[in-house]
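By convention, the token line describes the chain's fold. To illustrate:
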Amino acid sequence: MDWKDLIWHPLTGLAVGVSAIGQLGFGLLEPAWSLLSSTSGLWFPAIATTASTIMPELGYAQLGTKVLLASAILFVGVQVNKLIDKIQNWRENR
């Protein structure tokens, strides 16, 4: 495959388009992360309770497990981010 074929390949154009849209939308990530971070004490217990008790009773046990796992990973990410912020703040103010 020649380099011209690589440049004019449809997947190359798709990758360039997705990366351009991703760069434009990257600024929207911070407000969404702030919202998740500030409300994590509310949404995680609600999702965990729903996924572990209500969804299996409704017949969606596998989906409940996946939702619980995804929310737990997100919750741990939020808590690690908060810990990193506290450590950085402590190091700056000592």
The mean pLDDT is 85.
